[in-house]
Fold:
Amino acid sequence: MKQIAQAIKNRDGAQLALFAQSIPNRKPEQIPKQAIDIFNDLFKQLRATFPAMMATIKDQEQLNELRRQWVKAIAENEIYHSEQIEAGMKRARQHDKPFLPSPGEFISWCKAGTASKFGLPDASDLYEAVMAFRARRFQFPSAEDYPWKSNAEYWLVTCVSSKMTSLALSVTATLKVCDTEIKKLTEKLNHGFILPDPIAQVEKKVSVSSPEVALNHIAKLKAMLRQ
Structure:
């Protein structure tokens, strides 16, 4: 900055040109038009739901920045479906504060509502289902024989339970895994994925050879190595 100021003071055009060339060109943010259109419609609903919203906006610059952050959140999280927006607005109408939530909080409402639309539990409910399964699983011949409420419950519970065992997860860590798996499955279902029925694991049978057969194989291997 001092060098630039000195160049301006000395009216050193050549030096200023060099400084200008050294500054990388920044490409303008590419925001999908769909995200802009969705926010424009959503903004009207938010203003009606949160009457104190505009009181915190002092000028046009703040309004533009608010708009930019919300549009980016919508685009980055691909909140493009009317069901997602309605799920978020349903939670918004239940909100007991008159002030606008953050973009991240509203997006989480949209996603939670989408998961609920597919009949998926929230993280705490999934954790309870996992613990119930782990407490009773030995009462059934296999996991597939357990009385599952849905295919989604089977896949989510067995996945989380398996990770609990293999990674020795704490309660807090397990709840995070629950949340992650719900989000992953919600995303798949939102793109048309169809959950398969529970698939029984085929037991791998190991055949034990007699000592004579084993010795015969060893002899053949030794003979091959001597060739």
